[in-house]
Amino acid sequence: MEFTDVVRTTAAIRQFTGDPLPDDVLRRILDNARFAPSGGNRQGTRVVVIRDRDTREALAELTITGSRRYIAQKRIGENPWNPLHPTAVTEADLAAVDVPRATPLLDAAVVLVVCVDLGVVAAFDQDLDRIGVVSGASVYPFVWNILLSARNEGFGGVLTTMAIAEEPKVKELLAIPDDYAVAAVLPLGKPVHQPTKLTRKPVSEIATRERFDGAPF
Hints:
- The protein is of the alpha+beta class.
- Helices cover 34% and strands 12% of the residues.
- 27% of the residues are buried.
């Protein structure tokens, strides 16, 4: 595919046909994705490739905590899991949520769990009075490269993080070392429907000249 077609049509795919994603194709996807940049080129990413049904069922079960709070917060008009504003969700609100089946994790051809070695990331924001985001620069370019590479091969997926609310249990399930953080869970497969036109804000709304409050670019 042409580069512009890949970047403009890599959508969040959550419904899959059931067609297989062969190992040789997945290896090619990962082989291309590994050229993503990372801090100091230390390449601290690791991928757990999961096809086993029981493991995926267990992983799907671990999304319930994150999903329940997400849904409960949306119901009362909050931005779910927002780090700036404390939630007003109550235990009763949480108990009232019927969490839907984690369909993408169960129906995809394969699920990838992407981790990053916290011992090699450069977290320049670790001393700031806010939640840290900078260390993601050493893992999320790789995650996005996986999705772009999958699109190029005619497959698709979605970056999910619901299970990370239960990261200790995810680590135990997959034998992930303590020094690693779970960054993303990616179900991949053949899309039931492949969008060809995505809706995004125009450049004039996301870029300004010289200052945050500067003129639109």
